[in-house]
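Illustration: ATP-dependent DNA helicase RecG.
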Amino acid sequence: MNATFLQTPIDYLKGVGPNRADLLRKEIGIHTYQDLLHFFPNRYIDKTRYYKINELQQSNAEVQIIGKIIHIKTVEQKKGKRLVASFTDGTGTMELVWFRGHKWIKENLKINEPYVIFGKINWYNGTFSLPHPEMELLSEHENGLRSAMQPVYPSTEKLTNSGISNRTINKLMQQLFLESKNKFSETLSKNIIEELKLLPKNEALFNIHFPKSQELLVKAQYRLKFEEFFYIQLQLIRKNLIHKYKIKGYPFEKVGPLFNDFYKSHLPFELTDAQKRVIKEIRNDLGSNAQMNRLLQGDVGSGKTIVALMSMLIALDNGFQACLMAPTEILSVQHYNSLFELCKNLNISILLLTGSTKTSERKEIHEKLENGNLNILIGTHALIEDKVKFKNLGLAIIDEQHRFGVEQRAKMWKKNELPPHILVMTATPIPRTLAMSVYGDLDISVIDELPPGRKEVKTVHRYDSNRLKVFKFIRDEIAKGRQIYIVYPLIQESEKMDYKDLMDGYESIVREFPLPNYQISIVHGQMKAADKEYEMQRFVKGETQIMVATTVIEVGVNIPNASVMIIESAERFGLSQLHQLRGRVGRGAEQSYCILMTSFKLSKEAKTRLETMVRTNDGFEIAEVDLKLRGPGDIMGTQQSGVLQLKIADIVKDGDVLKIARSYAWQVLKSDPSLQLPQHAPIKNTYTQLTRYKNIWNYIS
Ligand SMILES: Nc1ncnc2c1ncn2[C@@H]1O[C@H](COP(=O)(O)OP(=O)(O)OP(=O)(O)O)[C@@H](O)[C@H]1O
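Result:
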């Protein structure tokens, strides 16, 4: 089809007047023929069946009936006027009712002419009635382009009264297909269509709007979903390949004495297979000429720290420096301590830089960094300040990336002549399908195995009325020498109610667990950093047994002796947050517990969240449920990506199609990176269009 036809403004289509054109633009975003063509139905109704009035049985059924209007009257009521038509098909009589648009309807309805009516029936006042029916003269109905599966277009239901009914869209679509003669260009190459037995583009577009059968509808949907994913993946993979091709990195050719010595003599435990695999992936990246840009996903406690260290050792072995940046002071201190401990037998220098580093120490760090006497620097975003200059930074590791913006990641790049290799670590599992779409431009490594011997955190759900039993449990655990977290929701630090809940909770805990037998810490977002740190340290050192806190302790805190996590008002937390919080316990050898406290009032979704937490400890399974409950929109990082603009495919339900589309996109680009081969001409053409227009469906059919 030629481009000008599809880009014709919608005003020019027969049947679209200026008013309708305005509505189509404003309400549905249809500006051109192309927009209309790609306005896909969101469901289909089976219209093969015609009902008789004497067969009607229950309210809310969607029915289609052939009959005649025998009489129309206006009924005045307190609430307003109604227009009521008696409609009969010889087996009985029912009422058609309109609450608005009376004048137009009265003038246009034909008495005693056969109509096909469709809609949802009600049982009202001893008879069936059908408010605001869709209706069409039987003669027109028989002539129209129609199919058994009748499409229902999104958002037309609420627009019916303004003149854009589903039937209007259907008619306009018929007109569009008539004018186009259904000659839309093919957008996939022949071999893909043949191998996957896809419908050709023409047939897919026709059947999505006018399905000839259920089978063809499914095929049409599959073809268009495939295509949507295929082109998004093609874009992402291409970006990634161009990056690899263009952005040179320092090749770390050797694995030298530090890495080998550590691996042979100083590993505190045997690596899991997943850790080994991931280290190998990172080694391969570092050894190539391209800059590494890798995302390391690993569930809470899966052992990312040692992977980070071993990657840094490779940088050091090749004469480079490395750094690790974490989002909070607490976390960077923790990383520093564990890395320092792991490296104590290696001859390397490692220091910590945060907001609270003293000026004199800071000066020393700056000097050592610049003259190369410092090998590894750990810290908060103090690391990306311009003052911090490295002699030769070879690898930057960023922990918990969603707390840092893309810009901060980019700042790291500028610390050298060539950008350092970047490893981003996250403990928030992202479902594979989503990761493929959102982080398609990063390579992804996954630690999908926990270290051996790790006990699952036993998780239970308790109502507030069981609080006394929970208190007893806390006392018993403390008597065994364990420590307890009690977490309150504080989603917005400014929410006064939350703050009050936290303080009330704290006071009741203090009453229940009095001095001198019990010591309690409290940490929340409104405290000064130094006070927070002080309270945290008391808990770390075991001076306090209970830590009352808000979600500030959500990520990364590692206190192996803390074995009970109590989450108050658990129904108010999202699933991934609950999982992160639970990840704070179960880090030592003891059996750990997570108690989810709630009131009796629970929404269906909250129940699903709680049940999921009780059922499984697997972060990826939890992430899948979370994606199903919330959709991709709320999950970190998805806002800027193309996944939300999907018109027909569904990232949650169509994961299988996505995988196939991704593998085909790979195959095509591997064999033909710049899409020069003649068989890829339709793909090249479409790809060029879509990169120009930015939106996946704005390319030419
Ligand atoms: N292969 C292993 N065998 C035994 N223990 C391990 C292994 N790998 C890591 N550990 C231990 O497991 C604990 C968790 O590891 P680590 O702190 O690296 O997890 P993480 O992935 O950073 O988790 P989080 O994101 O929750 O901080 C540590 O105490 C670590 O020493």
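Reading the tokens back as a structure: The two ends are 6 Å apart (CA to CA).
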